[in-house]
Amino acid sequence: MNKDFIDALNLLAAERNLDKEQLLESIEEALEQAFERNIEPGKQIEVEVDPETGEIEVLVIRRVVEEVEDPDKEIVLAEALELDEEVEVGMEMEFPVDPERFTRIAVQTTKQVITQKLREKEREHVFEEYKDRAGDIMTGVVTRTDNKRNVFVDLGRGEAIMPPREQIQGERYMVGMRLKVYMAKVELSTRGPSILVSRAAPELLEYLMRQEIPEVSDGTVEIKAIAREAGQRSKVAVTSTNTNVDPIGACIGHRGSRIQAVTAELQRERVDIIMWDPNPREFIRNSLSPAKVGSIELDTDGGEAKVMVGNDQLSLAIGKGGQNVRLAAKLTGFRIDLLASEAISDLDAAMAAAASRQADIGGFATPGDTKRAAFDALFSASPDGHGAPGGAEVPAADGAPSGDAAPDADNDAESKEREEA
Q1: Is residue 227 in some structural domain?
Q2: Angle 257-264/202-212 helices, nearest 10 degrees?
Q3: Domain count, the chain
Q4: Which of 200, 217, 236 is the last residue of a domain?
Q5: b vs e for 293-322, b when ≥16 Cβ sit within 10 Å of the residue's Cβ?
Q6: CATH number of the domain within which 285 lies
Q7: Whole-structure pTM over 0.85, yes or no?
C-alpha cells in the first residue's frame, strides 16, 4: 500500500459519505483475516495501516507464559527474555511479518473481505440516517419492480420497498417516476437496513392536505380523524378552532380547487370532508353522509351503534360494496349496524338528531319525553321569548281572547246590521 491507496480511500469515503477511520479499521480487519487464513493460520495477527503514508505493518502476537500450551499464540519466558530482558509473564510480544508474503489467494480474500466490510459500513450509515425519520413524508424515485409486485424506491441514500398492500390500488409505477411516500418503518436486519414506505397510509393524505390548505397548515382547521381505502375513497373529519371559518368549505376550496389538488396526487381518489362532532351520535350521523339517517342507539361500552335508516336511504348509507358504512366505522371507532325502517323525512331526521342531543344532556327519558324534547328543540321559542319562530301564531292561554279579537267582533256586528237592513 502507498499514498495512492490513501488518496483512493479518501475519495471512496467522500463519495459514499463514510468515515475514513472506520474504513481503515475495516481494511485492517480484512488483512488480519486474510493473514490468519492464508499466511499464518492459527496465529493471532494484528495489522496497522498508516493513515498518512499507507504503509502496512503486520504483527504476530504471542503471550509470555511459564509453560507453553499453544506455540502459535504463546512463548516461554526463557525464550522471551532472550529477546527482551524486561519482559514478564502475562505480557504480549509482537513479531513482525513481511507483508510481501501475501499470495494471490490472500490478496483475493482480502479484496472480498474489504468489499463486504464496506457494504456493512455503508448499510449501518444508511440505517443511522433514516432510523429517526419513520413517520416522515419523503420524495423518492422508482428504481425497479419485481415479480411479487414490490416497488423499490430510491430515497437518495438508501433504497426503500413498497409492497402491494402499501400501494394505491390501480396506480402504475414506472421506472424513473417520482413519488411522495410515507416512511412507515425503518429496521436493521442481517441483510442491512430495511425501509418500508407507503402510499396507502392516512398520514400521506393528511400531509397533502396540510400542503394545499392554509387553514389546516396554520391550525385553524383541525383534522380529527381519517379513514382511507387508498385509490378509491376516504373520509376526513374536520373541525374549526375559529367560529368564523367553515372547516368543510376551507378544505374543499373555490369550486373544489383545494381538494382536487390533493386528489391529483392520489390518482383522483375520492375524499369526503365531513364535520367532526364531540357528540358520538352526531359524529356517526355525519360520517354516514351523504345518506340521511334516523335515530341512533349507542352502546359506548361495547363500541356499537344501531342506526335507523329509511329504505330509500339504505343503499346510500351502505355504499358500493359496503364502503360507506365501512369507512364510517373506521372513522368513528364504532361498529355500525344499519337497521332498515320506513322512509325517514328531513323532519324525522332533524327530530332524531335533536332528541339525541337532548338525551345526551338530560340522561335517560321515556319515549314520550324524548319525542317531546325533540319537538321542543326544533320549535323552541324565539330568542326574545315571545311567540313561535317563523311568525307562527300562538293561541292565548285558558281560552282568553287574544289582543286582535276585539276588531274581529266589531266587524261581525257591522256585517249583521247590513244584513238586517
Answers
A1: no
A2: 140
A3: 3
A4: 200
A5: bbbbebeeeeeebebbbbeebeebbbbeee
A6: 3.30.300.20
A7: no
